[in-house]
Amino acid sequence: MIIGIGIDMVQVQRMNKWMETPGLTERYFHPEELQYSMINGNNAVFSLAARFAAKEAFGKALGTGLEGIELKDIMIKNKENGQPELHIFGTALRALEKKCTDPSVKIHVSLSHEKEHAMAMVILEKDSRTAN
After folding, report:
1. CATH superfamily of 2-125
2. Which of 23, 88, 92, 127 is deepest in the core (most CB within 10 A)?
3. What percent of the chain has pLDDT over 70?
């Protein structure tokens, strides 16, 4: 059963400005996200923009936005086949637990970018056989 859907779009140019400001990307991105994105060289800005959109989409899927959530507590990590996975901990995990106490909640994420925009969609799903 779907318990939340969120989608967000980010202008890639916004991430260019963030990358030029010392310490700003470290404020919003998990160190592993930054490391992965920087490996992409000139495409790092697209990677970061899509990841930021995923963070915003997660807040929308929760139905609460990102208030009280540290954005570094939401991390996009790619599997070996390139498929993105959304990992949460700390403040983000507590926000999800507040919405749904079922520990089997699955988080689905999809990222995309082209030219000037990056976007992400997040779906929160729980097993319909569980009570909560």
Report:
1. 4'-phosphopantetheinyl transferase domain (3.90.470.20)
2. 92
3. 97
